[in-house]
Specification:
The chain contains twelve helices and nine strands. Helix 3 links the parallel strand 4 and strand 5. Helix 1 packs across helix 11, helix 3 runs parallel beside helix 7 and helix 5 runs antiparallel to helix 6. The protein binds nicotinamide-adenine-dinucleotide (NAD).
Length: 254
């Protein structure tokens, strides 16, 4: 039996990953705002600090995998909160769990980026820079004056870079780190976007070459693969799981 830690486990992708891992008999320590073993607000420094320490206390000495799924969509009106949860609430778990992961069996982490990183042309370099510098006050201040989709996509670019920037240190400690970059998949977060008068039509207009918007389990199955020894040479990758949307819109961007 392996031990995993999943944030955002009460809903959507985090719940789908948790169900898959528990379904095969593994142990999953869950973190979310509610309905989890550790209930905490990852949008605040105090909340995420407590969440990391309480979840590690439940995990014990060694952790085999981490999947920080907790996140907010672009339609959330508090754009500073999107910045805090989507970037700082994730890297707190990445860095806070490294020692425990280094004690794990074939340990791996999968962070959640998004295909908005490449298909949203409004990514703001200054905001990405504030994320990468760990400047939460600066990122929150910039985010407050930017559209929600810009903050969202910029936070997901920073998550992808946070993964890539860690390959040397994490590789040396025997811990793989990757990200998935999903396109839209069915979840409460997506539904809030579809219900939004601005974002709904934009999401509906996205061409999905596989035919229709995917499910949370279609993302979770790829995460399960990236966590597994079958992906032992996959490290620092940002794997698009979007039904071909990015490839369709940017076929020659490689
Ligand atoms: N659904 C999509 O179309 C889509 C596409 C690309 C990427 N993503 C990403 O996938 C991840 C999961 O999204 P989902 O669609 O499953 O969303 P969801 O809303 O179904 O689940 C997100 C979970 O995060 C939790 N959360 C939110 N704010 C929190 C906070 N401050 N502290 C603790 N927990 C908090 C929520 O309570 C919820 O349980 C997110 O990072 C999201 O950005 C989603």
């Amino acid at each position: 039996m392996h031990t995993y830690l999943v944030t955002g486990a009460a809903s959507g992708l985090g719940a789908a990953v948790t169900a898959r891992l528990r379904g095969r008999g593994d142990r999953v320590v869950t973190v979310d705002l509610h309905d989890s073993e550790v209930n905490a607000d990852l949008g605040t420094v105090d909340g995420r600090t407590r969440a990391v320490s309480e979840s590690l206390a439940l995990v014990g000495d060694s952790l085999d995998g981490l999947v920080p799924c907790a996140g907010l969509g672009p339609q959330v009106p508090d754009h500073a909160l999107i910045a805090s949860v989507n970037y700082f609430g994730v890297v707190a778990f990445l860095d806070g769990c490294l020692d425990a992961l280094a004690q794990g069996t074939a340990p791996a982490t999968v962070a959640i980026s998004s295909n908005s990183t490449t298909i949203d042309p409004t990514v703001k370099p200054e905001l990405v820079a504030a994320f990468m510098e760990g400047d939460e006050a600066g990122a929150r201040s910039l985010a407050s004056d930017l559209p929600g989709n810009t903050v969202y996509a910029s936070s997901k670019v920073a998550i992808a870079r946070a993964v890539r920037h860690r390959v040397s240190e994490w590789g040396a400690r025997g811990v793989r780190i990757n990200a998935v970059a999903p396109g839209p998949f069915r979840s409460p977060l997506l539904q809030q976007g579809l219900d939004d008068p601005v974002f709904g039509p934009l999401i509906e207009s996205l061409p999905v070459p596989t035919g229709e918007i995917g499910s949370a389990d279609e993302i979770a199955s790829v995460i399960e693969f990236l966590l597994s020894p079958a992906a032992s040479y996959v490290h620092g990758s940002i794997l698009f799981v979007d039904g071909g949307i990015d490839a369709l819109l940017r076929a020659d961007a490689i």
